[in-house]
Amino acid sequence: CDSEMGVIELSLREMFDFIGQSEGYEFLINVSFMEIYNEVLTDLLAPPGSKKPSIRENRQGEVIVQDLLELNICSIEEVLKHLKDGQKNRRVGRTNMNAESSRSHTIFRMVSYLTVVHGQ
Known about the structure:
Elements: H1 7-21, E1 25-37, E2 40-43, E3 54-57, E4 63-66, E5 71-73, H2 76-88, E6 105-116
Antiparallel strand pairs: 1-2, 1-5, 1-6, 3-4
């Protein structure tokens, strides 16, 4: 039921419905999830012991996050699983107002690549 779905679930459904109806195109969708806490970046999807991501500028002057794991996804369920897994890796602590408060910021990023399928 739509009334029980949140903004993220509704947005994902719209996106995957669009992809499912798009003939003549192939889509590749990647996700990444990072936390910024005390000016330190953490990759929330990378296995423990992985290289820490860093922010830098490329030759074109664009700001990029280097060494951030990007995972290929094919379904809404995969996106939600990665969101849930990443949330488990966030830094949280108890405050007077909340048992699991976080002073960090997170960025969940989805990038979609489109390819025209020749011959259609």
